[in-house]
Design a protein that fits this description.
CATH class of the largest domain: Mainly Beta
Distance between the termini: 26 Å
Strand order of the largest sheet: 1-13-12-17-15-14-19
Order of helices and strands: EEEEEEEEEEHEEHEEEHEEEE
Number of domains: 2
CATH architecture of the largest domain: Beta Barrel
CATH topology of the largest domain: M1 Pyruvate Kinase, Domain 3
Structural class: mainly beta
Radius of gyration: 18 Å
Strand content: 25-35%
Helix content: 10-25%
Shape: globular
Number of strands: 19
Largest sheet: 7 strands, mixed, barrel
Length: about 290
């Protein structure tokens, strides 16, 4: 178990209702077996059902999705235009090409047209319903019975203040402006341990909820997209490659999976105390092939 001088606590919580769109900071979030309730249950696909992400279409990060009280989402662009979408519970599923999931429910024409106009190409918005079981692949650290949202690899993504501070120190050596956690799109931001201590965490209790480490996060082009200009640069991948490169990739943050059964009313909140159990050494830690 970690024994940091300063207790580890939650200092930020974030939901990204639509995969690859900007999300929203929250004070608390309910936990389901698929991760944080309302996180990455929607996604954008092309007419063939192929996943469309901000890796290729940077304009997606200029749009934002917020959860609504009714379980739907509100889409917003930078000019103040909005569209509210209810969960399409009665819609017939359509074919999609997600790893581990081959069907999802279409949101409908209003959402499709709203997104297509702003992204400059025909797209559809789809929803992962409550009955869908999308397994976490064994090579991603998944076990029998694990299920995930539409997130990459595993449902809950964690970064830490200490690791970001260290990264920004490295960036400063090259006269690069500091970055925020938004470059990495975490669900949970923690503070109180040493830089990159999370590499060795294997079991994490956040508040009253237990999580299991699945894999570390391989950072892709998403981390290089400036959130205002929506254009790519070389950082932070270039700097991470000097300090955090192995197995041909660069690494920042970890992914967790809720441990079942969840406690009644499972919820995470800013300010929650965190207890992390770690392996004795971090050499040979399991990694994941996408961030």
């Amino acid at each position: 178990m970690t024994s940091p001088a300063t207790p580890i606590r939650v200092v930020g919580l974030h939901l990204y209702p639509v995969k690859s769109l900007a999300g929203v900071a929250v004070d608390q979030a309910a936990v389901s077996r698929q991760g944080l309730l309302g996180d990455r249950r929607w996604a954008v696909v092309d007419p063939t059902g192929e996943n469309v992400t901000a890796r290729e279409v940077h304009l997606m990060l200029g749009l934002r999705a917020e959860p609504t009280e009714q379980g739907g989402i509100r889409l917003l662009d930078r000019h103040g235009a909005t569209a509210t979408v209810a969960p399409p519970r009665e819609a017939s599923p359509i074919a999609v090409l997600f790893s581990g999931q081959d069907a999802a429910r279409p949101a409908g024409r209003v959402a499709d047209d709203w997104l297509s106009e702003r992204l400059g190409q025909p797209v559809r918005l789809v929803w992962q319903d409550d009955q869908t079981h999308r397994p976490i692949q064994p090579e991603m650290g998944g076990r029998s019975g694990d299920t995930s949202s539409l997130a990459d690899a595993a449902p809950v993504h964690v970064t830490t203040e200490a690791s970001l501070r260290r990264l920004n120190e490295w960036l400063a050596e090259s006269d690069v402006d500091p970055l925020g956690h938004d470059r990495f799109r975490p669900n949970v931001v923690l503070d109180g341990d040493e830089p990159f201590a999370e590499d060795g965490w294997r079991r994490v209790r956040i508040g009253e909820v237990d999580f299991r480490y699945t894999m570390a996060c391989d950072r892709c082009v998403m981390a290089t997209i400036d959130r205002q200009a929506l254009a790519t640069a070389k950082e932070p991948i270039r700097t991470l490659a000097r300090h955090r490169r192995w197995e041909g990739s660069t690494w920042f943050g970890i992914r967790l999976t809720p441990v079942l059964p969840l406690p009644p009313g499972a919820v995470l909140a800013v300010g929650d105390k965190v207890v992390a159990h770690r392996v004795a050494a971090t050499s040979g830690i399991a990694l994941q092939p996408r961030g």
